[in-house]
Amino acid sequence: MNHGFFTIISRAEFEALLKGFGPLDTKRIPLSQASGRVLAEDIVAAHDWPLMNRSCMDGYAINARDIFGATETNPGYLECTASLSIEKAPDISLFPGECARIATGGILPEGADAVVMIEHTQSMNDEEMGTVEFRKSAAPGENVMMRGEDAQTDKTALAAGTVIRPQEVGLSAALGFEELTIYDQPRVGILSTGDELIELSETPRPGQVRDVNSLTISALAELAGAVPTRYGIIKDDLDSLKAALAKALAENDVVLLSGGSSIGVRDLTVQTIESMDDAELLAHGVALSPGKPTILGRVGTKPVLGLPGQVTSALVVMHVLILPLLRHIQGDAGAFDEVRRPMRQAVLARNIHSKPGREDYIRIRLEERDNDLPLAHPVLGKSGLLRTMIQANGLAPIPADSEGLYEGQTIGVWMV
Amino acid sequence: MNHGFFTIISRAEFEALLKGFGPLDTKRIPLSQASGRVLAEDIVAAHDWPLMNRSCMDGYAINARDIFGATETNPGYLECTASLSIEKAPDISLFPGECARIATGGILPEGADAVVMIEHTQSMNDEEMGTVEFRKSAAPGENVMMRGEDAQTDKTALAAGTVIRPQEVGLSAALGFEELTIYDQPRVGILSTGDELIELSETPRPGQVRDVNSLTISALAELAGAVPTRYGIIKDDLDSLKAALAKALAENDVVLLSGGSSIGVRDLTVQTIESMDDAELLAHGVALSPGKPTILGRVGTKPVLGLPGQVTSALVVMHVLILPLLRHIQGDAGAFDEVRRPMRQAVLARNIHSKPGREDYIRIRLEERDNDLPLAHPVLGKSGLLRTMIQANGLAPIPADSEGLYEGQTIGVWMV
């Protein structure tokens, strides 16, 4: 393979290659630690949930046909025969013309099929029992959560591959799952290369740069639920890089090499990847700007990526490609879906030119406006400056087939 | 105070009360753990960054006036006198008519004021030195990051109150900050009350419910960077609740009480809060649906909140009010800003009716469409069902002064 020039592929092609990796192994963890992880086994309900028909409101359990047609001006009247405890199944049944006081969560008694909110009723005496006026009718099932509406006995309540949000934690708790089987969080090894790099504790001489990239990339990997390990600054020679990559591969699921963007460093990254056993170079550039000099290799079943040396470019590549990869190998099938991007609509404040043939990511600072979409200001400045990413709160993708975007146009801005 | 009826305040009024709390104490932590936290002290640069004028590209360092007017058809020619190492300051100066090979990140030599990308040049012989053809002119400063563009000596590079994203980690690293002073992560105590509640390990009898809320609320609090502690199921009596609240207040910065929504339980929550020393009830309901029976109190300097007992209502209240509170007391001044909501624009698939006078949060499932905004389907079903929050991937707020939203209307959907 000739490494002297780029074989550049589109973002879609690059993503297709990334989707070829994973998923990771699975493990059981306490439910209290499961939020953000991806379910690796179906959750099958041992019992219906709700267990019984339950009231959604504080009010009266009734039979809908007993107050059919009731209105403010033509109310209906029922006799309240009980005030039901929320903690246990009711020991009464409703007969025609009767109602029972019920609290939110309370179980409907036999003979009741709906609940009327307390606000639409009026007790005709000062006690809870006795005649109650209903100023509203109800449909059967109204204000009642029916048995099994959340989960049914022996049916899948949550399918493998579901991303566990707080609400999925809630349903798992309702069904008594104290542990869940989830996909492992990816261990990500991060190697910095570049003889100009120095430790944070050192003071740079002209030409030297503190190791900005490995800490930045580490913080980005955490956003996708990964567990990063930094392997420090590796010398820019093949033997040092080979030894460091072999160690990082042994200890991680993904390895990210952050080096210079120059052709020399890129070639060294490629040589290092290719020197491993069962290694394959999959992509040697991607049609993104910034982010073009991104290298993708495979060693065994593990992805190895060479990231651009400019930290601002690496940031964009991480957001666009690597964070979705890290979620994908956690079993999240929709990790690359556009819908998963934190995208806001905004109105562009000035024209942006873009070179067709590559997807451009423009840094955007959003200005909120009352009763209108935010205004999207492109952040000006050299793309290598960190300041441009610090002033920005979003990225606006410009499609590869576009020559730019126009002032006043509504665009999607991806919050970062 | 009469607890028999609600004193309901608007979301804006409730937020104004929440903004009265915090900020928490500060502490120093390693930069590698700072992502997501809020900076509590300005970062002042000890030196300019970049340290010198540096190239953004692989190419040739030139003086712009030497190739003024160069084009494809009328190229300019300069003599390359050096190939500069990236690691150290150049030991040459450029004289008129000269250029020097430079890599991304390399320092510009004396006499150079711009860089021309390698792609726009052609070496006239096979070696790096000698005559080089320039098919493009350059403006002074082009492709150069100027000294001090990211940070200037003794100036604030990042201000206290900045939320630390990966890019802020990067700038801190560039300036040599191995530790940062940040606001503490809030410790959040979570108490569940309700005699109908049972542990996850138990099998519910009719009327019993596993303690869904405390795990769900705990997972939500983590989304805002809080450290939750669950205090288990507390008996529905004043003495038990007082003892549990006192303990939770001693050990946390915020206490969340998750109880029933019924008037009786609400009154008990209010009594418990008011029984503490230096306690004040601040709000006794908020004009949100769901979420109306939300109680806000203050004990000493700490907020105590009574959340609705229906877990789906508690979820909405957490997203709308409590997660911003938890970020606010971490020193994040913009925590309540609308811009911080993960809001997507979508086209509503059907009419939604809303009662004026309260802000309604409608559960939405987004359907992605090619080349168009997603379609927003309201999730139907009793609001107390967990299924409705599991099928949803967003919430659509309907303002308090609106009677509803219309099919085909573009709305903001808050991803949850």
Automatic annotation (TrEMBL), chains A, B:
SMART domains: MoCF_biosynth. Its cofactor is Mg(2+). Pathway: Cofactor biosynthesis; molybdopterin biosynthesis. It is an enzyme of class 2 (transferase). Residues 189-328 form the MoaB/Mog domain. GO terms for cellular component: cytosol. It catalyses: adenylyl-molybdopterin + molybdate = Mo-molybdopterin + AMP + H(+). Belongs to the MoeA family. This is Molybdopterin molybdenumtransferase. It comes from Pseudodesulfovibrio profundus. The lineage of its organism: Bacteria, Pseudomonadati, Thermodesulfobacteriota, Desulfovibrionia, Desulfovibrionales.
